[in-house]
Amino acid sequence: MLSYNVAVIFLAIPVRSLWVDGVVASQGSELRSLRAPVVAEEPPNCLPDVSDFAGKDYCWFILNDTVEHKWSSGVLIRGTQGPLPFFSTLQLVLIVDGNWRPYDIGIWASGYTNRFYALPLGMGADISFSIPEVNRVGGETSGPRVALQFDVQLFTTVTIPTIGRVNATAVKKAYAYVDKTRPDNGVIVVITAVGEANGIHSKIIFHAGIYGTDLKSWLYESYVEIHISYHEHDLTINYVKNFPMFSVESNL
């Protein structure tokens, strides 16, 4: 009997448009003028968007709208597959009072992140993370937190040569929140697609997050976790690996 076991775990500490005051800005540097002033962005000048994010898998940004009293923190998550460099956008909008204390929340999110992972034994995993466009202000209050939810989707295909492939889909709610009593704000995306076919079992988890302890200190992160198992025809495969995409801090 052949047996193949891989268990590699790395702990990661992590669409094409931006929303400002109801304006959706897509490609084109001239659209920078339609946004609130940029406090910071990394890589430099990665907004409204560049084709390759200067070689990074992300473009994080902080915007400050002093007129509307909105402070935004967001990240673009780059894909690696397809004719265009598609990416998904997560933009958390904090509604602040005259002292710049958050008291309500908004979200702009949209786009696609498509990635392919070449794995041992010729295996491959295609993932497509997507966000149906959401543009919303105003959350629900529960205790000290104000929060809102929005839909995210994950489509995956895992292939093992000469054996077959398994497809999986998932739809789940992502979570955005602000705490009115302490410095704790963020967006949390964790979605898992599970599939089984041809004796192959797959579980793929897509994670993305934005976490803030004040208006200028933010952590942006994203990673993909892949689980594949197969136990038939004298062949055993157990594969588990975490693929970090990025984990970066604003450090202003």
* Low-confidence runs: 1-34
Strand content: over 45%
Number of helical segments with 4 or more residues: 0
Structural class: mainly beta
Describe the main β-sheet briefly: 14 strands, mixed
Question: What's the overall average pLDDT, rounded?
Answer: 85
In total, how many domains does the architecture comprise? 1
Distance between the termini: 56 Å
DSSP helix fraction? under 10%
Principal-axes shape call: elongated
Alpha-carbon Rg, integer: 20 Å
Give the SSE order as H and E letters. EEEEEEEEEEEEEEEE
Query: How many beta-strand segments?
Result: 16
Blueprint (SSEs and pairs):
Elements: E1 2-8, E2 18-20, E3 23-25, E4 38-42, E5 58-65, E6 70-78, E7 87-96, E8 102-118, E9 124-137, E10 140-142, E11 145-160, E12 164-179, E13 185-197, E14 200-212, E15 218-232, E16 235-249
Parallel strand pairs: 1-16
Antiparallel strand pairs: 2-3, 4-5, 5-6, 6-7, 7-8, 8-9, 9-11, 10-11, 11-12, 12-13, 13-14, 14-15, 15-16
Summarize the structure in words.
This protein is an all-beta fold and 252 residues long. The protein has one domain (2-249). Helices cover 0% and strands 66% of the residues. It has no helices and 16 strands. Strands 1, 4, 5, 6, 7, 8, 9, 10, 11, 12, 13, 14, 15 and 16 form a 14-stranded mixed sheet that branches. Strands 2-3 form a two-stranded antiparallel ribbon. β7 (87-96) and β8 (102-118) form a beta hairpin. The protein starts with a strand and ends with a strand. Residues 1-34 have low confidence and may be disordered. Keywords: Signal. Residues 1-17 form the signal peptide.
